[in-house]
Amino acid sequence: MSYKYLLTILVGMSACGKTVIKRELIKEYEFIPITTHTTRNPRNNEKNGVDYWFKSKNNFIYNIDQNYYIEYSQTNGNYYGTPKWNIDWSKHYVIVLDLNGAKTLSDYIGRQFCNIVYVYCSIGTRRRRIMQRGDFDLNKWYERLKSDTEQFTDEEINSICNMSLSNNGHSTIAQATRELIRLGSK
Question: Which of 2, 4, 131, 167 could link 17 by a cystine bridge, Cβ 3.0 to 4.6 Å?
Answer without folding.
Answer: 167
